[in-house]
Amino acid sequence: SWTMNSIIDDSVAAIRAQVGDARVILGLSGGVDSSVVAALCARAIGKQLTCVFVNHGLLRKNEPEEVEEVFTRQFDVDFVHVHAEERYEQLLAGITDPEEKRRIIGSQFWNEFFAVAQDLDGVRFLAQGTIYPDIIESGARKTGGKASTIKSHHNLIPFPEGVHFDLIEPLDHFFKDEVRALGTALGLPDHIVHRQPFPGPGLAIRIIGAVDREKLTVLKEADAIVREELDAYNERLFRETGERNGEGSVWQYFAVLPDVRSVGVMGDERTYARPVILRAVESSDAMTADWAKLPYEVLTRISGRIVAEVPGVNRVAYDITSKPPATIEWE
Ligand code: XMP
C-alpha cells in the first residue's frame, strides 16, 4: 500500500543516512523481528549487512534450512551460518535447571556472535530487532516487573569489555502487527512473517531435564507433526470463517518432552518409552492463555501420528492447564 511503501522508503533513507558506507552486523534468529530488520537493511544497504545466524541446534525441524534459504537466495546480504550445534551440546550436557539453560544459551550466543564480529573488518553498527513493546517491557524489567521475575528473556545485550557498536533499531517505534505488515511488504515469506512465538533458548526449554541429541531428535519429529496438524486445523478454520486468530483458532502450539518413561505395548511387545506432551493455547498476547479446546478427532490424529511416526514415543498427553496458574512453556 501507499503508506507501507512510504514507511519503507523513510526507513531505508534513515538507515542509509545513518550507516553511510560502514558495515552493519545483525544477529539473525529466524524470528519475525530480526528477519524484518534484515530485509529492511538488505534493501537499504545490501551487502554492507552481515547477518549472523548462530545455529544452536535448538530450532525446530527445518528452520535453519529455511532461514538460510531466505537470506541467501531471496535477499542479497552477507550471510554467515555459524554451526555451533556441537558447542551448545557440550555446554548443555547434564544441565537441568531451566534458568541455567537460558543463561548458558544466551551467553554462548554472544560468544559466537562476537567471534564473527571480530573476524570482520570495520563493523561499526549493530542492528537489532527491538520493537516498541520491548522498550516498554525492558522498563518494566528494570523496575522489577513481571517479565524479569518469572523467566529471564534475552533481548538486552551485555557487550563484552572494550566492545562498542552504534545501534540501529529501525523497528523501535513499531508494534508487532506493523512489523509483520512491513515484513510482508518487503517480500518475506509467510512462514517467517506469521511465525508463532518461539523462545530464544528454543527446544532446550521444551526438553525437561538435561538436553541431549537423542531427545532433541524425538522432540523435533513430534513437534513437526504437532505443527503440521495444527497449521492445517487453523487453515480449515480460516477457510470456514474467513477470520484468522478468531474464535477456536490456536495461537501457539508445540510438543514438550518430559524426563520420564512409561510402559506401553506394541504388537506383542511391552515398550518402555517416552511420552510427549502436547501444548496448545489460545491467547492474544501471551500474558494469559487458555488451553485450546481442540476437537477430539484432531487430538486423536496428532496422538496417532506421533506414536506411529516417532521412534521412541509410546504415549501422548495433552496439557489442559491455562495461564495462570501454569505458564505457556514448561520451563
Ligand atoms: P510463558 O511460558 O512465560 O511464555 O507463559 C510467554 C511467551 O513467551 C515465550 N517465552 C520466551 N521467549 N525467551 C523468549 O524469547 C524465553 O526464554 C522465553 N520463555 C517463554 C513463550 O513461548 C510464550 O509465547
UniProtKB/TrEMBL annotation:
Listed GO CC annotations: cytosol
GO function term, MF aspect, one: ATP binding
EC number: 6.3.5.2
Ligand binding (ATP): S29, G30, G31, V32, D33, S34, S35
Reactions catalysed according to its record: XMP + L-glutamine + ATP + H2O = GMP + L-glutamate + AMP + diphosphate + 2 H(+)
Pathway(s) where this gene product acts: Purine metabolism; GMP biosynthesis; GMP from XMP (L-Gln route): step 1/1
Its biological purpose: Catalyzes the synthesis of GMP from XMP.
Protein name: GMP synthase [glutamine-hydrolyzing]
Gene that this polypeptide is encoded by: guaA
Shown segment, full-protein numbering: 200 to 530 of 530
